[in-house]
Write a structure and sequence with these properties.
8-stranded mixed sheet, 17 strands, alpha/beta, elongated, 20 helices, single chain, 7-stranded mixed sheet
């Protein structure tokens, strides 16, 4: 038996070396960790149970029969993060550049299927040169097998993709289907076709970083939800994200201890919004004043900054926050903001995370660029997402709520459970000046002093309509509250809604306006 145990130990040590010491050194020289080092950083110490360590590829062409590494370029298994079980795979760039083969894909598919059965999140640490060319269609088929599982797992268990190296060609579509994509600056890249192909086809000269780097995808394309400076920071933030979300669609996020005795009036909230309705303020100041420990985990921080999405805790409860940002484009809804927030709302609804919606929106962004690129269709995505969501939904209008954007931002009419406003709220079809110029056009044009008449009508309109009280009279608002008491009001609302049940009509699936 001793000989057999020694043989087992030797085989495991060989597998743990991946492509060998020289390849590991090369990985470190690029500023990258190895696949196993990443796992050790991410999961609870000693919790990782590997499966498929001895799997080898079955290909024999192009000399592959002479290159056969245990594990075949991907480490798969199960572990715990903060005591909660997760499934993960970590691609090993030291073995065939992390390229995906038939057996490599089979290993990933196996843990994904097990994760769905067990109801636990799936985390993919991606560092791969793409499909293993020597295996031809077998490797392409392997990718398709993974894509199918990504799709079937969507909304069943959370899926997180961490890009820690190259991710090109068909490989990018698996992360794109998952719920969240993390990238690391300078060392991770995503693109369908690389710089060389781009130059050949379109004659554009572009670097790897500009074409598909972390900043490009977190700021311009919106493909990446998070971008961090190094792998350690990236992996620590994966852990933080997991702390806000449940294990699966049947589960609820964990509640944290909260000292209700510490809940006091916050007079700072009374001073954030000035008397000038056109002066911008930072909605993040409102958010940090409301959430526990001022701790807000922002999603898509650098993309479509006119809307804010992210996770926080309110009275110890995990909530998803969607908020207009008056500091950027006056907080208008445009194409990118609509798509960004719709995706976030649908994730929260899929995994039982209550939604807090903070509204200060002057409307949808006008212009030919927006219209020709489909603001109607894309704006409808956010409307659709809020309308179908059955989780607890609480809305607070801090200032402007104009036009169709009022409806879209979780109004009472699309099943907002509790809808509140501050006294500074203005709820109307459009801004006062535009409304007055339409309603009183004849009077203003026929007046001897046009400017004076415009100002008089403007003041009259503001007094009558630029406030929250008409909406409150109709029951479209449940209350107009003092800003300093907002946190207590919101906590009470979410506490009341914690066991809320709301059902959509029976159907195969909906047809969101993609």
């Amino acid at each position: 038996m001793k000989n057999k145990l020694d043989e087992l130990s030797q085989k495991k040590e060989t597998a743990k070396l991946g492509g060998g010491e020289q390849k590991i050194k090369s990985q470190h020289d690029k500023g990258k960790l190895t696949a196993r080092e990443r796992i050790e950083l991410l999961v609870d110490e000693g919790s990782f149970d590997e499966i498929g360590m001895f799997v080898k590829h079955r290909a024999t062409d192009f000399g592959l029969d002479k290159q056969n590494y245990p594990g075949d370029g991907v480490i798969t298994g199960f572990a715990k993060i903060d005591g909660k079980p997760i499934a993960l795979f970590s691609q090993d760039f030291t073995v065939f550049g992390g390229s995906l083969s038939e057996t490599h894909a089979e290993k990933i598919v196996k843990i994904m299927k097990l994760a769905m059965k067990a109801g636990i999140p799936i985390i993919g640490l991606n560092d791969s040169g793409g499909a293993r060319i020597q295996e031809g269609v077998n490797s392409l088929g392997g990718y398709a097998d993974i894509f199918l599982l990504n799709t079937l797992a969507s909304g069943v268990v959370p899926q997180i993709s961490v890009i820690l190296g190259p991710c090109a060609g068909g490989a990018v579509y698996s992360p794109a289907i998952t719920d969240f994509v993390f990238m690391t600056r300078k060392t991770s890249h995503m693109f369908v076709t690389g710089p060389n192909v781009v130059k050949t086809v379109t004659h554009e000269d572009v670097s790897f970083e500009d074409l598909g780097g972390a900043d490009t995808h977190s700021q311009k394309s919106g493909v990446a939800h998070f971008a961090f400076d190094n792998e350690i920071e990236t992996l620590l933030n994966v852990k933080k994200l997991l702390s806000f979300i449940p294990q699966n669609f049947k589960d609820k996020p964990a509640n944290y201890e909260f000292d209700f005795e510490s809940l006091k009036e916050n007079v700072k909230l009374c001073t954030i919004i000035t008397d000038n309705p056109n002066r911008p303020y930072d909605m993040k100041d409102v958010i940090s004043s409301l959430v526990d420990d001022e701790d807000f985990f922002e999603v898509h921080k650098y993309y479509a900054e006119n809307i804010i999405c992210g996770f926080a805790r309110l009275g110890g409860m995990s909530v998803g926050i969607v908020a207009n940002q008056p500091q950027v484009l006056a907080g208008v809804l445009d194409i990118n903001a609509s798509v960004k927030s719709a995706r976030f709302v649908r994730f929260c609804d899929a995994f039982n995370i209550p939604l807090l919606v903070l509204v200060d929106v002057p409307g949808f962004l006008p212009g030919t660029e927006q219209e020709w690129n489909g603001i109607i269709r894309h704006g409808a995505k956010l409307l659709f997402a809020f309308s179908e969501a059955t989780v607890p939904k609480v809305t607070l209008i801090t200032r402007k709520a104009y036009g169709g954007a009022y409806d879209v931002m979780n109004s009472k009419h699309i099943r907002g459970d509790f809808n509140y406003a501050w006294p500074s709220a203005e709820i109307a079809v459009m801004g006062p000046k535009g409304a007055v110029e339409i309603i009183f056009k004849k009077e203003i044009d026929s007046s001897e002093n046009r400017e004076l008449e415009l100002e008089r009508k403007l003041n009259e309109y503001i007094q009558k309509f630029a406030n929250p009280y008409i909406a409150a009279e109709r029951g479209f608002l449940d209350d107009v509250i003092e800003p300093k008491n907002t946190k207590k009001v919101l906590i009470n609302a979410f506490e009341l809604l914690k066991d809320k049940v709301d059902l959509n009509p029976r159907k195969k699936h909906n047809n969101i306006p993609l």
